[in-house]
Amino acid sequence: MRDIMIRSSILLSTVAALGLSACTTGGGLFDENDPNRQAKTGALAGAATGAVAGRLAAGNGDVGERNRSVLAGALIGAAAGAAIGNQLDKQEAELRQQLGSQVDIRNTGDRLIVTMPQDILFATDSATLSGGLLGDIQDVAQSVLRYPNTTTQIIGHTDSDGDAAYNLSLSQRRAQAVANVFLAQNVPSSRIQVIGRGEDQPIASNLTPQGKQQNRRVEIVILPNAV
């Protein structure tokens, strides 16, 4: 009986998620060129989470009650996940049209990560913004204003050259300099988190000049709030 209940719950949640996924437009679910891929992924992830929540909420009710609770949770979760994914897909497409080729944009399905190289943003050992990517930062800030149901993390990173404590301070000051542009564009301070990571989160090897260059960066992470 227990195995039947588990299989029924999984079946119901999967059908609900795939049903909602099929309602979206664009290519297949895992098509990298599908502009709605994160909406579909969000629907599936939300359905799975909602199904688990529904199962827990049902407690020790009978099989029918549990299955209904799982289905309801899957539908609610899928709708919420699809809404977040759809918002990210749309915002990502807009930013790709607006920002230059030196800015990297990554859509993970639950956030957008906009990465800007510090070598263009700042002179060596400086936390004063140069004019190189100022327009791009302003464009990201305006995008954040157009999507008010989001929180933005501005995270500074350095390579491993020099003293770790100094690198941490420098990364914080550089992140704050980018945040100041957001504030000047009227993004509320309550929606901005300024974080310095120093040399603690490299994305490449610090043993080569090319790797160090990649590690010197500022990431603008756009996080949709729960819907």
TrEMBL record:
It holds the Pfam family OmpA. GO terms for cellular component: cell outer membrane. PROSITE patterns: OMPA_2 (PS51123), PROKAR_LIPOPROTEIN (PS51257). Residues 109-226 form the OmpA-like domain. It comes from the Bacteria. It is found in: Cell outer membrane. Coiled coil: none annotated. Residues 1-22 form the signal peptide. InterPro entries: Bact_OuterMem_StrucFunc (IPR050330), Gly-zipper (IPR039567), OMP_bac (IPR006664), OmpA-like (IPR006665), OmpA-like_sf (IPR036737). Keywords: Cell outer membrane, Membrane, Signal. The keyword Signal applies. This is OmpA family protein. It comes from Sagittula stellata (strain ATCC 700073 / DSM 11524 / E-37).
